[in-house]
Inverse folding.
C-alpha cells in the first residue's frame, strides 16, 4: 500500500482572522471596558463553550481555527545547523549587548525565513521588547522554475543573500533610527550579505549558535503564529505586499500577555512617544 503522508493532512490555505486566544480575549475586555462589569468572561468559560459545541461536524471547523491547524500536538523537529564561512566569532550571539538579551531597550530584532512550496519564502522581523512584527516580501525572480540558475548567480527563488539583504534594509530604514540597534539571525546562507547590511543601515548583526533556534525564541514563536496565515506546504509567493501588511497588522494588534495585555503596536507607540517627549 502506497504511503500518502496523511499524518499531517492535506495542505491547504486557511481563512485569515484576528486569531485571538480565549485568554487574550478575556484579558483585553478588562482593558477595553474597565467600567463595564457585564463585559467580563473567563478564558476557561470560553474554552468550555467551545468544548460543549465542538462535537460532530463542528469539531472539524474548530480544529481548522487552531493556530497550528491540528488537534493533536506532534513532535517538532527543526535542525538548521549550517556552519557558514561568513560567520566569525565577533558576530556571534555571545557578543550581543546585554540590553538586547534582557529586552531592556527596544530596537533589537530577530529575523528568519518561513519557507513554502517551490522554495517560496517570506522574511520575518520581530522586535524583541515590543514583539512588533514586520514581514518581508520576497517574490521569485524572473526565470524561476523554468531557467537553470547560473553558476554563482542569484537565487531565483527570491530569497538569496542579495534579495534578503535589500528587503531587510528597506524595512529597517523605514523605522526610526533608535529602533535600529541589532538583528539576530540563524546561520542561513541568505545572510551572507550581512556586512553590507550593517554598513547600509547601522544595524549590528549577530548569529545564533548552530542547532539553537531558542536563541531567537521571540521570532520562533512569531513564525509559529504566522503559520496560521501561511500554512506549510503552500505557495507563499502568491501573497502580495498588501497581504503581508494585513497579516502583520493582525499580529501587531493582538494583545500579548508578556506586554500586560497591550498590543505590540501600542507598546511600540508608547516607546516612541516617550522618546519624543
Amino acid at each position: 500500500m502506497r504511503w500518502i503522508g496523511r499524518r499531517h493532512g492535506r495542505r491547504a490555505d486557511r481563512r485569515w482572522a484576528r486569531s485571538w486566544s480565549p485568554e487574550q480575549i478575556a484579558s483585553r475586555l478588562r482593558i477595553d471596558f474597565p467600567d463595564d462589569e457585564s463585559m467580563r468572561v473567563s478564558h476557561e468559560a470560553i474554552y468550555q463553550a467551545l468544548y460543549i459545541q465542538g462535537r460532530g461536524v463542528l469539531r472539524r471547523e474548530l480544529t481548522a481555527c487552531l493556530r497550528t491547524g491540528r488537534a493533536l500536538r506532534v513532535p517538532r523537529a527543526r535542525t538548521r545547523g549550517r556552519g557558514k564561512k561568513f560567520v566569525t566569532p565577533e558576530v556571534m550571539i555571545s557578543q550581543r549587548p546585554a540590553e538586547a538579551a534582557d529586552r531592556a531597550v527596544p530596537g533589537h530584532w530577530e529575523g528568519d525565513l518561513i519557507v513554502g512550496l517551490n522554495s517560496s519564502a517570506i522574511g520575518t522581523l520581530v522586535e524583541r521588547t515590543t514583539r512588533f512584527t514586520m514581514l518581508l516580501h520576497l517574490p521569485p525572480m524572473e526565470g524561476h522554475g523554468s531557467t537553470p540558475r547560473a553558476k554563482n548567480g542569484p537565487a531565483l527563488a527570491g530569497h538569496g543573500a542579495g534579495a534578503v539583504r535589500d528587503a531587510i534594509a528597506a524595512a529597517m530604514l523605514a523605522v526610526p533610527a533608535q529602533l535600529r540597534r541589532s538583528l539576530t539571525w540563524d546561520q542561513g546562507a541568505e545572510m551572507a550579505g550581512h556586512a553590507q547590511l550593517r554598513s547600509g543601515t547601522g544595524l549590528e548583526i549577530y548569529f545564533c549558535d548552530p542547532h539553537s533556534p531558542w536563541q531567537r525564541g521571540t521570532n520562533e514563536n512569531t513564525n509559529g503564529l504566522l503559520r496560521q496565515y501561511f500554512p506549510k506546504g503552500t505557495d507563499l509567493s502568491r501573497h502580495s505586499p498588501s497581504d503581508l501588511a494585513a497579516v502583520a497588522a493582525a499580529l501587531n494588534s493582538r494583545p500579548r500577555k508578556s506586554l500586560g495585555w497591550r498590543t505590540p503596536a501600542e507598546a511600540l507607540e508608547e516607546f516612541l512617544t516617550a522618546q519624543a517627549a
